[in-house]
Amino acid sequence: MPNMKASLQRTLWISRVTFLEAVRQRFFAFLLVLSAAMVLSSVSFRVFDFGHGELKFIADFGFGGMFFFGSVLAVVMTAQLFFSEMDNKTALTLLAKPLSRTEFLLGKFCGAWAVLGVFVIVLASLLGLVLWAREAELIALAEQSGKIPATFSAAGLAEFVLLQWLRLGVVTAIVLAISALARTFLFAVVVGSLAVVAGQLQWIAQDAVLKPSDSLLYEGFLWVSCRLIPNLQQFNIGDALVLGSAGVAPGAVAEVALSGLLYVTAYLCVGSLVFRRREI
Amino acid sequence: MSSAISVRHLTKDFRIGIRGLKLRAVDDLSLEIPRGQVYGLLGPNGCGKSTTLKIVLGLVSATAGEISILGHPSATSAARRRTGFLPEAPYFHKFLTGRELVRYCAQLSGVAADSVGAAVEDALGLAAMTEAADRPIGTYSKGMLQRIGFAQAVVHDPELVILDEPTAGVDPVGSAAIGRMIHTMRDKGKTIVLCSHLLGQVEQVCDRVAIMDRGKLVLEGAVDDVLARRDRHVMTVEAMTPAARDAAEAALAAHGAKVTSVTHPRRSLEDLFRELVTGSRDA
Which candidate in A41, A62, A214, B20 could, as Cys together with B15 as Cys, close a disulfide (CB 3.0–4.6 Å)? Predict the structure, then answer.
């Protein structure tokens, strides 16, 4: 147990410095400001709502910003945090200490994930504020006209934030596993981005698995793809959670969260195994 | 008692290019580094010094051979807990202050929570960095970076300190300060392994040296034994006139000795520089 405690403490120290390094980056500040501006400006663009409800349009704007900029941040920032240690050779100093490579990688993950948590919470808070303000206006208008007002669920928004944070955690773990293998920052960013796209399209492979095929090789390929690549679409149930556009089965959020945690664990294990063999 | 570092038949091959061509960086190297001494590992660039140190620290895997540190197999946590390392041209997180960095390294090295504060102050004091410890590392000069690197390497009071080119790019005053730190560590009974190609400094601070070339060990021994020429002698004479010199040469010749050269002693440029700029530290 003392060893476990010491190991957790070392991981915590690495993640703390990783967090400090990340929040000092201009890239993080730039994306946060850009995403916040996107969420706040959604009210001005609601005339382009394409016939959808106003709250849905505003929420979609916020979800889009969280997804896109969150993914960019998760891929680029994570790779940058890893390669800055390698290229600047600070990893030499750290790994010459009684610090295991698994602790180092786990610390990097926790630090990057904490930054992504800040990113998601800030954006969700702004989105919640915009939705709350507009909801109040819409309720007043609905009372005058005698219609049923549109509302949003703050608790659903909180659940959605948790799922988005997990989704970004999965992306971070994948990028770290790729970085542990990659020799260059660019390679890690490109392959990491492709992994995100593959994760968004993974449902296609899932659909194809259900259809019968004559080729065992094809079926095997699909089966492996479905398990290797996480289905990132499963985290995008913001409409259902926040606006109640569709029913969410009991336990569905917990199931998605568990799936996300399993992928995070699996990719961190793979990354750790690869990193242990890497020559610094 | 076991050696500080024991290296037996160490070989390291790197694979380069798509075809995986083999490049041998270290070739069947065997070394026994005794405890409590300053040991210099010398050689030209690319001779395998840094690779050897990285293998010793477990940062790079060996192709063949056995290594132990203070009796423990190399690359284990137990071995690294008792080892401090200053890499070549150290780079640290610029946003941390010197004190934060040393504290961070103390915590990673397993210094007990109630001893961290005292250990950090001791290490900063040894490296003469107490005054500048609260400045961000991004504002440090090259010499200060090396000194704070030294502080992070010794903060957990290791038995073995490995310094890779500790004075590279540092002016003679800073270099002398690092030399003093090395002596202080040796006086405390620590083993210091110094990897450098600044031969003058190595000669001044090391007890033993090993010289490597193209991955192989070409010479190893105590500095005095390696450098002494037992068949030659040097005398320093004051107020010598030509007549006195002739008389001395004749007297020596009578005993079968022969004077082969007579020159004026000169101090080194480094000594002159340090004498002229004494006290100007890069703070």
Answer: B20
